[in-house]
Amino acid sequence: MAFTLPTDASVVIKRATASGFSTELNNVPVTARDMATLGAGKWLNDEVINFYMQLIITRSEKTPTLPRVHAFNTFFYSTLCDKGYARVRRWTRRIKLFDQDLLIVPVHLGVHWCCAVVDFRCKSIVYYDALLGDNPKCLRLLMNYLHEESKDKQGNDFNEDGWSMKCEKEIPRQHNGYDCGVFAIMFAEYLSRDAPLSFSQDNLPFLRRKATYEIATGSLVSLI
């Protein structure tokens, strides 16, 4: 795989990290202060991750050959976990969740970012943690969410026959304490186009620059 960016990347990235920069996509704003979290050794904040999820959704909507994707923002999982289904019931009032191919759920565990993906095509819920942690609670919580969502939006119980739940271990591995957010958004980006997870810890400096460029330009870069 070629890890390269367009020739204007350095200029765009410099502008995106300068004081006064701001951008917005689907009512999700990002400022220069948020973009600074994409710098080396920084933890990504909610705003950057939420904006990146919107980039993934937008690409899916504009590209019929890619999976149909919906992604929740970073507050969905904690709200569902702490407050229950009733507090997130209206989050899908404008979409038909069960018509999607993939549902992406960013998962924040206090000081660590992970990613869960519901694949309606192959009937699976898979948890991606770059530190290879297990989180059966997350898997079961999302399965229960599908039950509640089906009853509420479709008037019937969700049939989980044939579904699998897994904490994936054969994935790129994080080797420090601060790159988890970048791993999480890259898991989401690759999986949203059915691409193999062909990056590694060594690629993280590039992937931080890539995400900065993508947010600044409002469009995802296709890696060859």
Automatic annotation (TrEMBL):
Residues 28-191 form the Ubiquitin-like protease family profile domain. One of its GO terms (molecular function) is deSUMOylase activity. Signal peptide: none annotated. PROSITE patterns: ULP_PROTEASE (PS50600). The keyword Ubl conjugation does not apply. The keyword Hydrolase applies. Belongs to the peptidase C48 family. This is Cysteine proteinase.
